[in-house]
Amino acid sequence: MSTPATPIWEVFIRSRSGLAHRHVGSVHAADATLALQAARDVYTRRGEGLSLWVVPSSAIVASDPADKEMMFEPTGSKIYRHPTFYEVPDEVGHM
Amino acid sequence: MLHQELARRRDPMWRWERPLLREISMYAQGLNQSDPAAVTASPEAARFQARIDAEDKIEPNDWMPEAYRRTLIRQISQHAHSEIIGMLPEGNWITRAPSLRRKAALLAKVQDEGGHGLYLYAAAETLGVTREDLVDQLLAGKAKYSSIFNYPTLTWADIGAIGWLVDGAAIMNQIPLCRCSFGPYARAMIRVCKEESFHQRQGYEIMLTLCRGTAEQKAMAQDALDRWWWPCLMMFGPPDAASQHSDTSMMWKIKRFTNDGLRQKFIDATVPQGHYLGLSFPDPALRLNPESGHWEHGPIDWEEFRRVVAGGGFCAADRLDARRRAHDEGTWVREAAAAFAAKRTARKEAA
Ligand SMILES: [Fe+2]
Ligand SMILES: [Fe+2]
């Protein structure tokens, strides 16, 4: 008999105050409480974090990699968004 | 135009880092999996290889050749199974550890190995398989794991030898995997490698204590080294000339060193550590080549390796039985958790 599937949760850890939560991996768990406990056991055995988030994998919407060009190319051509686009004479000093 | 395009795709087909098998089969069409020449046959495949050559990382939702996906699923799941089965030979000694300090260390180590298995199953799942399927394959005896865990742990010294040698060999293998071309595998390996160092050091400390103890204790340490040395050398896999998977794995940068190359690194690192313990290695041909600076070793019994890999290991049946029992005895827990979650969801929906 094949084992029934248990939902997947993505795990995010804040490693230090001042840092954002960062994706570290995933766990399987029937509900949110168990997911938090599993994440604690699997990903924080050596003081890796001060705070944990678990998010049902199925709740995350991702951009389609096939859309990469359409989604991100326009920002590539807008070089005037970068400071180096503008000319400031050396004599003015650091700006 | 962007808005129109996005509106057209109102249903996001891509789940985060979890391509569905249905989507994968889309990739598989028209690819001859058994033919390595097909690897760069299509424009996508050529682009893929160019990314690999440029040391770019491949992420789960990126295009990849079907054979790359299959190779990774096989390798990562075998690696995960090895971590899980690897808990058993050491678990055998937890209740008989000679002190509280040793018991706490061994418990923590075995728990780490369970964690390694879970990181790795999670990495494999990003390739479109489920952990449940992988575990079922293991329990059905259809999946491989490292043959080293089919040897018995007869004495406490074996726990020292495993930490020092088996984890030592695993570290040699895993460090280059931290730079593997597949992102989730590389990231899992970075976590694993951070934890392995403690495993090897606690094992060496056990050996050191035994070697500084009574004559009987030192003999126990020597006996453990005698039994574990050759199987540990086999952990790196068949010699390069006979290995089936090496070439494409190197091309894809899943592997960075050959089996023989890693084996030599391990021998060079380990032999002086053994001599420091005052132990001898069970290889009369072992000698330092003063020109190359490498330790040369005698012939490895690959017949034994094949026998153990094929399931002829002393503990093979035992290991799988233990896993099956643990899985079966955990069924009610999984069922209860699922039932509780379903009940709560139903209540929330009714409210
Ligand atoms: Fe491990
Ligand atoms: Fe380990």
Strand and helix layout:
The complex is a heterodimer of chains A (95) and B (351).
Chain A: E1 8-14, E2 22-28, H1 32-43, E3 51-56, H2 68-77
Antiparallel strand pairs in A: 1-2, 1-3
Chain B: H1 2-8, H2 21-28, H3 43-53, H4 66-85, H5 87-91, H6 100-125, H7 131-139, H8 156-177, H9 183-211, H10 215-234, H11 246-251, H12 259-276, E1 287-288, E2 295-296, H13 302-312, H14 316-329, H15 331-350
Helix pairs in contact in B: 4-6, 6-9, 8-9, 8-10, 8-12
The structure holds fe (ii) ion (2 copies).
One fe (ii) ion binds at residues 113, 167, 170, 196, 199 of chain B.
Q: Could you tell me how far the N terminus lies from the C terminus of chain A, measured between alpha carbons in angstroms?
A: 68 Å
**End-to-end Cα distance of chain B:** 42 Å
Total strand count of chain A, please?
3
Average predicted local confidence, pLDDT of chain B: 89
Helix fraction bin of chain A = 10-25%
Number of beta-strand segments of chain B? 2
Q: Give the amount of beta strand of chain A, in percent.
A: 15-25%
